[in-house]
Amino acid sequence: MLRRTLAKGAVALTTAGVIGGRQAVAQQDPVEIQFWHGLTQPLGGMLEQVVADFNASQQRYRVNATYRGGYGETMVAAIAAFRANNAPHIVQMFEVGTATMMAASRATKPLWELLQQTGVNINFDDVLAGIRGYYSLPDGRMASMPFNSSTSVSFYNKDMFRKAGLDAEKFPTTWPAVAEAARKLKAAGIANPMTTSWPTWLMVEQFSAIHDIPLATKGNGFSGLDTELTINNPLMVRHMQNLIDWHKEGLFRYGGRDSAADGMLSAGECAMTFASSGTRARIKKEARFEWGTAMLPYYDDVPKAPLNSIIGGASLWSMNKGASTGRSDAEWKGIAEFLAWLAKPDVAAKWHTDTGYLPLTRSGYERVKASGFYKENVGADIPIEQMLRGGGTLTENSRGVRLGGFAEIRNIIQEEMEKAFQGQQDAKTLLENATRRGNVVLRNFERANRNG
Amino acid sequence: MRKNVIFRGKLLPLLLLLPQLVITGLFFFWPAGQAIWSSMLREDAFGLSSNFVGLENFTDVILDPTWRAAAGTTAVFAFSVAILALSVALLLAVQADKAIRGSSLYKTLLIWPYAVAPAVAAVLWLFLFHPQIGLIGRALSTAQIAWDYRLNGGQAMLLVIVASAWKQVSYNFIFFLAGLQSIPKSVLEAAAIDGARPVRRFWTVVFPLLSPTSFFLLTVNLVYAFFDTFGVIHALTQGGPAKATETLIYKVYIDGVENLNLGSSAAQSVILMLIVIAMTVVQFRFIERKVHY
């Protein structure tokens, strides 16, 4: 199956090359656009359906969507293909790869340039600020096409809340209140009151954004590669020390790196979890109890908290074929047309309601709201409302994070957290170590990309 | 006295050797050369800019505390795996060598785990020891033993050692069994007549006679623990928690594939290559010579 697709793709590529030279024939044979993505089922199938709809809507371009493994694997595959002069036209890149893609200026074509060159128009004024900001350059021009964005929220087991005598309809809004609820849950015999997925994303990145404190200098890395981590700050130390103490007290349980803890809530292993808003579909499918969604907690004595949360997920990048090979105008045009298709209000709205990812635009959100979707799917609007918390205007600290080698830095922070939860270090040492090791990664990235 | 036969001409022997030479060159020397070359470069992930930095990647690696920690982890891991796998295999082989009923079935069953792929082996162990879904893991939790290898470095290490050793026991078992069967009966009988009891016979006769096999296996097991345990570690712990099970080979993968730090990753693999060369030389030059047959 795969081989056949590959062979087809190869044949198509050669024909596409011929067409580039002979414009007259171009009307009959569609230009092939290779699109590599990293979404597993059922999301991958939904993505392929969007692509099929695009292909059916016109004859000039044909987009081939191929699954290349998870986000990390897709990134590695695209980079390897670029080095072998055979990169895909479009690649889906997770948010932590943004800085890497942006620094590789000859490998990618920024979205603003692509649109300008092809004359295709996508209106970004209406796109949710939190999404637009994450993928734009410091001057506001778009670097890549936001596609599947999620944010993170709290999920909780209402049955367990009732058992502990807590109000099941009201999730605690502040961290001290969360700890109090956890104590009551523990007293009611619940072994693991809370856990978290994506420890770095939730407890460091989201935490910093919501409390309006910088994660790194240079506007969280947006305005320069010479950025340094600033996570060793009093508020971060306070929160980490709380987590460590709660872990010792048995209120918090570390469930593993990245998405490892995703299944704990739906399996009835814990009462509260903090996870990607995309976990909703899984909880809905697996949970055999009444559950609820709520916004992420904060410390209410921090003056600017709570601000909007930041996004995760992935965006779409257009790539050159290789370091020395470009693409024909027809190919660039096809890429732009496809990206514009994704931004169409009805396509974007359907993607949002089908998958649970954030809606792309504010007007799209209003439309879905008017259709009564959120009345039937209670809590599905919490992520969006949380994105708009604090008025929806972003600060330098709440627009996102752009660090080179970010995947590595995330792991470094997770490793240091693991050490702390094993009782080997306190919050201060944790953050000192993470900062020192993270800065080494940043310096290496800066050095490798200085001339790039 | 043997008479040396000398073939004339160089073309025919070269021609006959050619396929092997091509394969060796293409699949061994070329990639190894590539690794050595990239170990002296510093480049971005896309290969758009690369600078020659000489041996800087090597000094960085050696001065990196996480690399040195990984080297320590690897030493502990490799020797534990080798010793555990060797001793269990020897025990099983000695038992299987006795005249017992159904010994061929017993032997066949013992060889089976070798046919299990490392990743599959790891998944089997996962189903046993995962704190939430594993049979034994859950039993331990019920028994109020704080078992969670995802957060306890010691437990994680224990788990990957046991899983990796289990995989290697079969291989060692075959060699030990063959070694035991090649010990002449007459020697053992002579010892028995001299009044040596089975335990004494084992340590004074059998064990020394097995020493070439043991040393060969020791090298093979160390190399196995160094290089072939990637699948087990990847499936069970991903090198965690907090790098507790990150061996050198796993670090090469993490730095090269996940962190896209190609220069450092290449330098680390060159160092690993040197370690293996050294181990093989030690095996052939010194140990084989000193072992009494």
UniProtKB/TrEMBL annotation, chain A:
Record gene name = ugpB
Name this polypeptide is given:
sn-glycerol-3-phosphate-binding periplasmic protein UgpB
InterPro entries in the record: Bact_solute-bd_prot1 (IPR050490), SBP (IPR006059)
Q: Which UniProt keywords apply?
A: Signal, Transport
The places in or outside the cell where this protein is found are: Periplasm
Q: Which family does it belong to?
A: Belongs to the bacterial solute-binding protein 1 family.
Per the record, the major location class is periplasm
Q: Check the record and name the Pfam families matching this protein.
A: SBP_bac_8 (PF13416)
- Species source reads Teichococcus wenyumeiae
Does Transport count among this protein's keywords?
yes
Domain of life according to the entry:
Bacteria
Cellular-component GO terms for this entry: periplasmic space
Q: Which Gene3D superfamilies match?
A: Periplasmic binding protein-like II (3.40.190.10)
Q: What does this protein's UniProt record list under function? A: Part of the ABC transporter complex UgpBAEC involved in sn-glycerol-3-phosphate (G3P) import. Binds G3P.
Subunit note: The complex is composed of two ATP-binding proteins (UgpC), two transmembrane proteins (UgpA and UgpE) and a solute-binding protein (UgpB).
Does the keyword Electron transport belong to this entry? Answer: no
TrEMBL record, chain B:
Report the residue ranges that make up the ABC transmembrane type-1 domain in this protein. 71-283
Gene Ontology terms, cellular component aspect?
Answer: plasma membrane
Q: What topology does it adopt in the membrane?
A: Multi-pass membrane protein
Claim: Ubl conjugation is one of the keywords in the record: no
User: What Pfam families does the database record attribute to this sequence?
Assistant: BPD_transp_1 (PF00528)
| UniProt entry keywords in alphabetical sequence | Cell inner membrane, Cell membrane, Membrane, Transmembrane, Transmembrane helix, Transport
Q: Where in the cell is it found?
A: Cell inner membrane; Cell membrane
Among Gene3D superfamilies, the record links this protein to: MetI-like (1.10.3720.10)
Q: Where are the transmembrane segments?
A: 12-32, 69-93, 105-128, 156-180, 201-227, 266-287
InterPro entries associated with the record: MetI-like, MetI-like_sf, UgpAE/MalFG_permease
- Keyword Chloroplast among UniProt keywords: no
Could you give a single Gene Ontology term from the biological process aspect?
transmembrane transport
Q: What does this protein do?
A: Part of the ABC transporter complex UgpBAEC involved in sn-glycerol-3-phosphate (G3P) import. Probably responsible for the translocation of the substrate across the membrane.
The family assignment reads: Belongs to the binding-protein-dependent transport system permease family.
Subunit relationships: The complex is composed of two ATP-binding proteins (UgpC), two transmembrane proteins (UgpA and UgpE) and a solute-binding protein (UgpB).
Protein name as annotated: sn-glycerol-3-phosphate transport system permease protein UgpA
Source species of the chain: Teichococcus wenyumeiae
